[in-house]
Amino acid sequence: PIRSSSSLHMSSSWSSSSRLLSVHEVATSVKLAYGGQTRRIPVVCPSNALLKTLTDQVKRYFSTEEAFTMFYVDADKDHVVLRTNEDIIQALRSLEPMSTTTRSPSTLKIFINGSSSSSQPPSPPSKGEGG
Fold first, then answer.
1. What are the transmembrane regions (predicted)?
2. Domain boundaries, the chain
């Protein structure tokens, strides 16, 4: 059982740089297509400007608002970290719209990080991991 709009009270304690606020404007969450089913996952964003950019870029990429709720990511990726507008575009390009793919998409979490990073980075910059 998923409760929505119940986490609104949590956003009353945001810090401008320490904690990421959950984006309620997006639609409380982004819907992902799970082989026919749609799941909602939280999206965090430190500023409304980045949020607007994200939504705008998604709409542009899919060219329809409905498609915005119908993108998925490969199971390889667990979450996507977005720092700048370019990262947003890159992430969107990496995503593929609903298609005839038999892969099982994993939960996609979109995190938009501000310029000030208080907590440690998501992962160290390693090139050629696996090869």
1. none
2. 18-112
